[in-house]
Amino acid sequence: MIRVNQDDYAYAAGRIRAREIKLLDKSRFDRMLESPDAEEAYKVLAEAEYGMGSESTKNVLEFDALLADEMRKTYAFLSEIAPDKEVIKAFKRRYDFFNVKVLLKAELSNQEIPPILVETGTYSAAEIVRIIRERDYDALFPVMREAIAEVYDVFSRTRDPQAIDLILDKALYRRFYEDLKSIENDFVKELADVIADTTNIKMFARARVLNRQITFIRNILIDGGKIDKSVYFSNSEKSVGEFINEIAGTGIGAEMLKSVKVSEKGNIQALEKALDDYIMKYIQRAKMVTIGIEPLIAFLFAKETEIKNVRIILTGKINKLPNDLIRERLRLIYV
């Protein structure tokens, strides 16, 4: 259990408020969108002091490296000011799962490791590579160790690469939920349930679009959240739209019915945007907190959403998508 003294966060909250004014606001996103090409949109990030000054990220086609640098810079800042370092580690562990997933996929498909490993986790990229290559799993935390063993077991029997994603994603959210629930703060504990519910809805929708049945659905849902698992099971043969109508009485269901058009209920991209926006609306409650852990957690989510939006814009610009199409995919921002 991580005991949080809200008063200990006075200095951190002050630093966060000063840094929040540098977050990309609507006018900057509009400038990126209205830019004539991806190169011009990319220049807005330079003005916003994105990245860590590496020369290798000057080219717009290298934007993934720039965004990875920006996320690493954000975690370095939060780790510097957070009174409880374990709070930050709870969020960083998600990137450990990402790196392990990349490594297992490469190994099990006999491919070279792609250059997309990130340095934002609790282990360095080099250390994770060593652990996987040397099978030194005792160096990992138990949930990840168990997930890796399950991946090898299931893949050896099924040869299904989708199993790697499913097993590691489920393990990631299980650990993330447990980590958030271990932080003694009502805002964070409720956030854990918000994330569990939105994750389960997303998993359920993907499964139904693929016409997967109840046995599969039982296996992918994570524990926690306010929506009982029996609701998913009893709707396991219905369409995504019918399921959303079924959960209309919940906060998430009502929000999706309001923000997603009837014709889009089976559209995974539209649903995922609605779920991300629901999380952000919850996070925005932190604006009312002067001193405490809430501003720190909110800044992290604000930055992650900002980076997701930057990626959507740059990818759209590079692929010459219409601005209206790019705009409707953008997530709700914090500022």
UniProtKB/TrEMBL annotation:
Q: Which UniProt keywords are present, listed alphabetically?
A: Ion transport, Transport
Family annotation (Pfam families)? vATP-synt_AC39 (PF01992)
- Check the record and name the InterPro entries matching this protein: ATPase_csu/dsu_sf, ATPase_V0-cplx_csu/dsu, V-ATPase_V0D/AC39_subunit, V-type_ATPase_csu/dsu, V-type_ATPase_csu/dsu_dom_3
GO terms for MF: proton-transporting ATPase activity, rotational mechanism
State the family named in the UniProt similarity comment for this chain.
Belongs to the V-ATPase V0D/AC39 subunit family.
PANTHER family assigned: V-TYPE ATP SYNTHASE SUBUNIT C
Q: Which NCBIfam families match?
A: PRK01198.1-2 (NF002266)
Name of the protein in question: V-type ATP synthase subunit C
Whose protein is this, by species? Thermoclostridium stercorarium (strain ATCC 35414 / DSM 8532 / NCIMB 11754)
Q: Its gene?
A: atpC1
